[in-house]
Amino acid sequence: MTATPLGDFLRARREALKPQDVGLPETSRRRVKGLRREEVALLAGMSIDYYVRLEQGRESSPSPQVVEAVARALCLDAPATAHLWRLVRPAEARTWRRARDTTVSPQLLQFMDGWSTSPAFVLGPALDILAWNPMAAALHEGFGPADNLARMVFADPAGREFYQEWERAAHSCVAEIRAAYGHDPDNPRIAEVVADLSERSPEFAELWARHDVKPKTQEGKHLRHPHVGDLHILFSAFTVNGAPHQQLVVYQAEPAGPTAQAFERLRARADDALARALRVSGARAPQGSWVRHSQEVLSLQPRHRPRQSGGGQTKATERKDTVMTTWFITGASRGLGAQIARTTLGKGDDVVIAVRDPARAPEDLRKADNVLTVALDVTDSAAVPAAVQAAVDRFGTIDVLVNNAGRGLLGALEEITDAEARSLFDLNVFGLIDMTRAVLPVMRRQGSGKLVHIGSRSGFEGEPGVSMYCASKFAVAGISESLSKELAPFGIQSMVVEPGVLRTDFLDAGSLSVPAGRIADYDGTPAHVTLDWAGTANHTQLGDPVKNAALIYEVASQETLPTHLYLGPDTLDRLRVKLDQIDRDVASWREKSAATAYDDAA
User: Fold this and answer.
1) Rounded mean pLDDT of 555-577?
2) What is the dihedral angle through the alpha carbons of 508, 511, 517, 521, rounded to the nearest 10 degrees?
3) DSSP string across 275-340
4) Burial of residue 129, with CB atoms counted within 10 A of its CB: 0-12 exposed, 13-18 middle, 19 or more buried
5) Mean pLDDT computed over 528-540
């Protein structure tokens, strides 16, 4: 066996874990230090042989999914996971870091919360505006949307009036992106912005072909604001510790000069716009929330925007269900989640798609202007709040949360280990809980919101060979029902969607697990009939995910949500069977059941 840095690292971390750290029983006959290789393989959802090859240096190119699975199995924190990526492939380490390039640290936000006299904002490597204070939002109020500096310069008509030295600003933007490209040539966000602007702007394409490189540092700018007039500012850029691909940008004015006086007028506009937005929303001005409210200051209008009518004119009186909303959809890389995202996008709404690997997100969704793709594994509870904040930073709010991420587990109960069951519940149940907890403060502040939990027909009827999956979906249904009553005082609604079998990739190995140990005695029994059926039924299922997504959107857009949404003829048939069974069970023992109370009870 040849020792490798990767193998040494995996072995050391495996030996540092105790069985109880990962929910495995402790035994007195354990001969190895820490976890066994087969236990790590089980927790990571891979074969023992494959994991052994990783530790022994005989497998040098694991997929991103394998790396993330091993990181979860070994309980690696963020720095250790980053180190694992570097050991596997340096290029993949860049990809892992990119997922954090869009997250602005709470410390930086808190620092800027008190910065009220100068415009300040944070830029990502592709010049995306990740966060800004109200002064910066008011400064750029003439742009729509003001989400990326390069697009504002080249693709927004307001840019040529705002930047009085337009050619200089254009050259600076392109040279800055080129500098970021040199640090990370495989960055998909940079590639997306370059491709988009090269198509939309001949000037951008010409400048990009020159390969000029100039990182932002310090220089003067001449800007013209539509309401406060000309501004001669000093531009300074600072690298953000802990996020080297981010820059903190500050615009400063000469003290007591005309620009300083214009800044005072700009500050008054920002304060007035914030107060107006708060009056519309009925919210209080909370501390530490300048990023969220800066989105409202930007447009000087409430967050919800009327959609455009077919003739391109905004209707004077729109029905409430035609107001643009923001949807946050987990598990949106394929299947029902991707179809819900496409349906929502087609209606003109803003969409946040949460996927484990952004590179595997559907291309049509990733390239849409009003889609934000966030890298998120919902079983990583520490990463959930940052993903929610990224959505709020981009769109100002979250109106609908679709808890879609999940997978299946088939097999007889006796065959399923504790680790397999816990892994299922971590995703199907606790991932849903963590997402809901993170989004609820946003919805409570705005006084409205809708929770759409994707359950299953297996969430109201137990089936042989599906016991653990049924248990997880029963939990989803119970949580949703309780939330519908619990959150009503805040104007928040909750609905569980219970579809039948859908013609998606759900029965693929990437979405469906089976026990590692099969018990032959169950062969020919209902449990293994179900298990064996799954291997032959894939992509022949009854349900159409496109039609299901369309109905989910239609129902979720109504004023009032039902508590349950049952989808599909197979679901409706099984629901009738279930209700009939309940009626029979109640009728058989009704009188004796009613007689179990105390005789003196009222």
Assistant:
1) 90
2) -70
3) HHHHHHHT----TT-HHHHHHHHHHTS-S--BPBPTTSPBPSS--GGGB--EEEEES-SSHHHHHH
4) buried
5) 73
- Residues 6 or more apart whose CB falls under 8 angstroms from that of 470 comprise 458, 459, 461, 462, 463
Which residues face 120 on adjacent strands?
Answer: 250
Kindly indicate the confidence band of residue 285, based on its pLDDT and cuts at 50, 70 and 90.
very low
Tokens of 356: 């484990």
Give the domain ranges of the chain.
5-88, 106-299, 320-568
Number of H helices, E strands in the chain: 24, 14
Tens of pLDDT, residues 80-117: 676 677 677 644 444 445 544 556 766 677 677 667 78
Active-site hit among 469, 522, 553, 598: 469
Residue 332 has pLDDT above 60, yes or no: yes
CB < 8 Å & 24+ apart, contacts of 259-262: 259/230, 259/231, 259/232, 259/233, 262/225, 262/228, 262/229, 262/230, 262/231
Can you identify the CATH homologous superfamily of domain 320-568? NAD(P)-binding Rossmann-like Domain (3.40.50.720)
What residues are paired with 219 via a beta bridge? 235
Angle at CA of residue 175, ends 368 and 359, nearest 5°: 35
Of 204, 143, 156, residue with least CA distance to 176: 204
Q: Which has the minimum average pLDDT: 50-64, 143-157, 539-553?
A: 50-64
| Tally of CB atoms within 10 A around 221 | 16
For range 199-203, the mean pLDDT: 94
**Mean predicted lDDT score pLDDT of the chain:** 80
Q: CA of 349: how far to CAs of 71, 310, 399, 492, 493, in Å?
A: 35, 15, 10, 19, 19
Whole-angstrom distance, CA of residue 544 vs CA of residue 330: 20
- The vertex-276 CA angle with 272 and 278, nearest 5°, equals 120
Query: In CATH, what is the architecture of 5-88?
Result: Orthogonal Bundle (1.10)
Q: What per-residue confidence (pLDDT) applies to 29?
A: 66
- Ranges 132-136, 287-291, 327-331, 437-441: which has the least confidence: 287-291
**Burial class of 408 by CB neighbour count within 10 A (0 to 12, 13 to 18, 19+):** buried
Residue 469 is among the residues annotated as catalytic for this protein? yes
pTM: 0.50
CATH 3.40.30.10 fits 106-299, yes or no: no
- Which range is most confident: 315-319, 551-555, 598-602? 551-555
Pairing of strands 492-499, 564-567: parallel
